[in-house]
Design goal:
The protein contains six helices and eight strands. The protein is α+β, with helices and mostly antiparallel strands.
């Protein structure tokens, strides 16, 4: 009887574990979590700003589904800070949910301007450039202005971020994660 009960428990556990897998898509364990300080390094931020920038005391901050970093000038008041935020798909956040966050932010900004050639979708709504690419939402700020120089700096930083993202996250991984929530 003990043997029969053990077999029944094993079968039940196996079926229970199989039913928890979600939509049958691949897990995102093979995809590296990309930090905002990887997308834009302190050196890249410094180059764009034209002055030496370094991380704030908080370094990389996790705020729920996103991570952010802020680079500040080493000499107080020498330049505006540069902030980088990334929301990336995961086992608990689908690419569709990330897209919805990106799109919901855009819809509320009537003053936004689309930018072509960066990621899957990109727009500027000062003081940020917003990029959606490969299941990730990247938001970069580099000051509060809206001049042509500010626009060029934001575009340059966004291109750098997308290059790093695409080197680390395959399009296939993002596609596989479209319905990956573990239920």
């Amino acid at each position: 009887m003990k043997k029969l009960l053990s077999i029944f428990v094993c079968i039940s556990m196996t079926l229970l574990a199989a039913s928890c897998g979600g939509g049958g898509t691949k897990a995102t364990k093979d995809v590296a979590v990309i930090g905002p300080d990887t997308l834009i390094t302190a050196e890249a931020a410094s180059s764009a700003a034209g002055v030496k920038l370094g991380m704030t005391e908080d370094s990389v901050v996790n705020d729920g589904s996103a991570r952010s970093v802020t680079y500040v000038p080493q000499t107080l008041g020498a330049a505006d800070p540069v902030s980088v935020r990334i929301e990336q798909f995961s086992d608990s956040l689908t690419t569709t949910q990330v897209w919805n966050d990106y799109e919901n932010t855009r819809v509320h900004r009537s003053d936004m301007e689309f930018v072509s050639g960066i990621g899957e979708d990109c727009y500027i709504a000062y003081p940020f450039i917003h990029v959606y690419d490969r299941g990730c939402y990247i938001r970069i700020s580099a000051g509060s202005g809206n001049s042509e120089g500010q626009k060029k700096m934001l575009i340059s930083l966004a291109k750098q971020a997308v290059t790093v993202l695409e080197a680390n996250v395959s399009a296939e991984a993002a596609e596989d994660a479209a319905g990956n929530i573990i239920k």
